[in-house]
Every structure is written in C-alpha cells, then in structure tokens.
Automatic annotation (TrEMBL):
It comes from the Bacteria. The lineage of its organism: Bacteria, Bacillati, Bacillota, Bacilli, Lactobacillales. Belongs to the type-I 3-dehydroquinase family. 3-dehydroquinate binds at residues 21, 46-48, 82, 212, 233, 237. This is 3-dehydroquinate dehydratase. It comes from Acetilactobacillus jinshanensis. Keywords: Amino-acid biosynthesis, Aromatic amino acid biosynthesis, Lyase, Schiff base.
Length: 252
C-alpha cells in the first residue's frame, strides 16, 4: 500500500480522500465557493485557475491564494491550470502556461501543483524540480475527453509521469461504453500495482461515476467531488456529502 503525506493529510487508496475544486471567475464567486467549502468540508481543495476570465499576474495569484489559504487551512491546496484541450476554460500559449507554473511552483501557500504531461518535457522537468525545491508536490495529469485510450498507452503515460518525478500520477478519461469503464478500472489497478507512486484515476461522465467511489479497489487516492449539483469541475462528479457517505461503506 503506497501513501503520500501532504501536510497532515495522508493520501492512500485504503481510504481515498475527497477534493473539491474552486471554479470561481471573480472574487465574489470565490467568497461564495469558500463558504460552501466550509460547509461541505472536503479533505483537499483544488483551485482551478483557468476559471478566471484572464490569465492572472503574480499579484492576482497572490491575492487569491491568500484568500483561499485563510479559509481552507489546514486542508492542502492543489493549484491547477488547464487549457481547453484538457477540459479547461482558458486558452494559453506554452509560454503563458509555463510562466504561470513558474510563479506557482515557488509559492508556499500551494501544497500540490498540477502539471499536464503532454507539455514540453524539458520545461515540465524544470517545473517539477523547482516545485520540489520549494516543498511542493507534483500531480502529473493526463486527460482524454474523447475516449479511454488503450491500456498500454495509459500505463505508458503513467510510467512517464513517474520517470519525470511526479509524486502522484493522474489519468482522467471519457468512457463510451460499460466495457470501457471496466477496462479502465482494471488498468488503474494494474498501474497501482506497477508504479511506485500513488495514482489518481477517474472515468468522467455518468458512465464513469463508479470509478469516483472505487479508489479502494482501483488504487486511486483522491476523488474529485462537486460542491453541489451545479458547481463542479468535470462531468460526472458526485457531490462531496454523497461521496463522503458512500466512501464510508468501503473504508477499512
Ligand atoms: O484532473 C482532475 C480531475 C477532474 O477532471 C475530474 O474528472 O474530476 C476534475 C479536475 O478539476 C481535476 O483537476
């Protein structure tokens, strides 16, 4: 059983932890979502920076991080910026993406930084190194919003994440059939057995819902939930209170 310590939270598939995403476009909605978070009490919080209306500069990042940190401490914070191809809301050039990640990778208010695998590998490596030097863990991600890739392709991607010194390897896919879901769950288990680092996996959309509660079987250490029926960061997310109840059934 692999585990990873982030502040005082232990990530382990024996009891997957619940993350909720802040998807606020302005400070008013940030305040509302932070209020909701204090009610639903997840285990971790993700700030989806691509929900803003424009690329933030260093000062804006700091203002938002301070506000988030004040409200969520001691819950760990994941900082994520996703472009539309990976299910995100904001376009960014490679230069803009890495400029933002360079700012984030040295910020002590962040515990985990999300980096997408498909970007330029040298630049990814340099972000990973910089984050680690500043005590920040890396979730390396790969998203496929069209399909469930072939098993070997999924395993290969997760091995590449490990080689790039990710602390957690994450894959999110879009199943088109029940068979896709079962195949993905099996591949996830295989990845958990082969890799030395913890994994996070989910199949999106309604078909994939089962994967969001099955971490104790498939090895996934985090499940992303929605705040309520209309605030979430990906299709098929289950609300945090429901996740909490259902996960209890599987806890050892
Ligand atoms: O990568 C993930 C997983 C996710 O896409 C999901 O399907 O729950 C939601 C994202 O916010 C997060 O960064």
């Amino acid at each position: 059983m692999k585990s990873l310590q982030v502040n005082n939270l232990t990530l382990s598939s024996s009891a997957p932890k619940i993350a909720v995403s802040i998807v606020a476009k302005d400070l008013k909605s940030l305040t509302q979502q932070l209020q909701q978070i204090s009610v639903v009490k997840p285990d971790l919080v993700e700030w989806r920076i691509d929900s803003l209306t424009q690329m933030p500069d260093q000062d804006t990042v700091q203002t938002w991080l301070k506000k988030i940190h004040e409200q969520i401490t001691p819950m760990p914070l994941i900082a994520t910026f996703r472009t539309p191809g990976d299910g995100g809301n904001m376009r960014a050039s490679e230069d803009q993406y890495f400029k933002l990640l360079r700012i984030l990778s040295v910020n002590p208010l962040i515990n985990i930084l999300d980096v997408e695998l498909h970007h330029d590998q040298k630049r990814v490596s340099s972000i990973v190194k910089r984050a680690h030097q500043h005590g920040i863990k890396i979730i390396m991600s790969n998203h496929d919003f069209k399909k469930v890739p072939a098993n070997l392709a999924i395993l290969d991607r997760m091995h590449r994440m490990q080689k790039l010194y990710a602390d957690i390897a994450k894959v999110a896919v879009m199943p088109q059939s029940k068979t896709d879901v079962m195949r993905f769950m099996q591949t996830s288990l295989k990845a958990d057995q082969c890799l030395d680092i913890p994994i996070v996996t989910m199949a999106m959309g309604d078909l994939g819902k089962l994967t969001r509660i099955a971490g104790s079987l498939t090895g996934s250490v985090i499940t992303f939930g929605s705040m309520n029926t209309h605030i979430g960061s990906a299709p098929g997310q289950i609300s945090v209170p429901t996740l909490r109840k259902v996960l209890k059934l599987f806890s050892k």
